[in-house]
Amino acid sequence: MNLPFIGLTLFLTFVYFEPSIFSPWLARVRAAFVISIITLIAAVATGVKLPKATQNKLLILLFITAVLSLYLSPLPIRADNYTGLSHLYKAIALYFLVVIIISSKDYLVKFYYMTMGFGFVVSITTLLTFRAGIESLKGGDLDRGMDIGRMVNYFGGIGDDSNEFGALMVSLLPLPAVLIAGEKSWIKKILFSIIALSFLLCITRSRSRGAFVGLLIVSTFLLWENRKKAGIIFISILMLTYTYFHTHQSFWDRITTLQSMETIEADRNAFARILQNRQAVELIKRYPITGVGLGNFVQAKIDILKLVPVTEGELRGFIKYAAHNSYLGMGAETGIIGALIFSLIIITSIWYCYSSERYFKTRDDLLLFYKISQSIRIGLIGFAFCSIFLPNQFNLVFYQFLAIAAVLKNLAEKEKASDIKFGDSSALIRKENG
Prior knowledge:
Elements: H1 3-16, H2 25-28, H3 31-45, H4 54-71, H5 79-101, H6 105-131, H7 162-172, H8 174-180, H9 186-206, H10 209-225, H11 230-245, H12 249-255, H13 261-266, H14 268-286, H15 297-303, H16 326-360, H17 367-386, H18 396-422, H19 424-432
Helix pairs in contact: 1-3, 1-6, 3-5, 4-5, 4-16, 5-18, 6-9, 7-9, 7-10, 7-17, 8-9, 8-17, 9-11, 10-17, 14-16, 16-17, 16-18, 17-18, 18-19
C-alpha cells in the first residue's frame, strides 16, 4: 500500500469520524489540511497524472463561478463567504485526491471496500450508542441528536446533522446491496446484508423526509435491476419488512406531512423549508446571472428581501435557515450558471457509471467493477433526489462518489483500448485464465 493511498485513508478518517473531537490539538494544527497537502505532494512525487474527465473541468468551472459570485455580489464580502468557499474547496480537493490516487483496479477495489467499511463503522456504532441512550460526541441540542430523537453520526464527522446523516446512509446503501447479488459465499452474503440493514435502520432513525424519498428511489432501482434474481428480492423484502416493524411511529408521522401542501404547511419545519425554497426562487429572479454570492443566502434574505428575523412565535428562526434544496441554494448564491454546472456534474457522473457498466458487463473478469459502478450510480441518483429536499451541495461523500465515477470511466476506457490494441488474443487469454 503506497504512501498517497495511506494519506487518503487518513484524510477520510477526518471526514467520517472527526478525530479532533478526541484530540483537540489535531484541530489546532489543522491536521486534516496538512495530511491532504502531504498526500497530494506524495502523489505528485510518485509521478501520477490527472486522468481526463469531464468532471475535472466542470468542478474547476464551478469553483470559479463561486469565486466570481462573491465579487459580483450585491452584498459586501463577509467571513461567512470564505467559510462557504472553504467548504467547496475541501469538497473539490477531495475529488481530485481520489481521482489522482485511485489509479489502478486494485486500489479502486480497496477504496470501495474502505468506503463501505467506514460507513458501516459509523452506522453500527451510531445505532448501538443511540439505543443505549448515549448522545453523539458533539453533544445534543434542539437541532440534533437525542433531544428530538433523531439520529446523527455518533463520531461527529460527516452526518452530524440528522438530514445529512440520512442522505449519507442513502448514498452508501447500494454499496453492500449490489454485492449480495451473485455472491456465492453465504458468509459474505450475510455480512453484506447486515451492513445494508444497518444503513436502512439509520435512514429511518434519522427521521429525514428527504432521506426517505431518496430511500424510495434507491430501493426502486435496486429491486428493478435485480428483478430476475429471486434470492435478492427475498432478502430485500426481509430487510425492508424488518426495518418497517422496527421504525418508530414518529418517523411515519413526519412522512405523512408530505401528503399534500396542507399537511406540509401544518408542520412548522416542513413549512419553513417551503418558505426557504420560495425565497431562493425570488433571489434567483432578482440576480439570475451572478447570484447573491456563495454563503450569502441568509444575509440576502435580510438585506435584499427585507425579511426581519423573528425571535418569537411560529416563525421564530425561519430567517436563519438555509435553502433546503441544493439546486435552488446553488442558484440563489451562484446564479443559474452555478446551478446548471452543479446539476451537470451529477448527470455526467451518472452517465459515466452507466456507460462503464455496459462495457464491464461484457467481461467476466470485470464483473466486480460492474457492481461497483452500478452501486455508485444508484447512490448518486439517491443523493440527487435527497438534494431536492436538503442542502447537500458541499457533501464530501458526494464528491467522493463523483471521483469514483470518473475513475470507473477511465478504467473502462483503458480496458477498451487494451482490447483494440491486442485484438481477439486478449479476449482469448482472459478466457483461458478463467
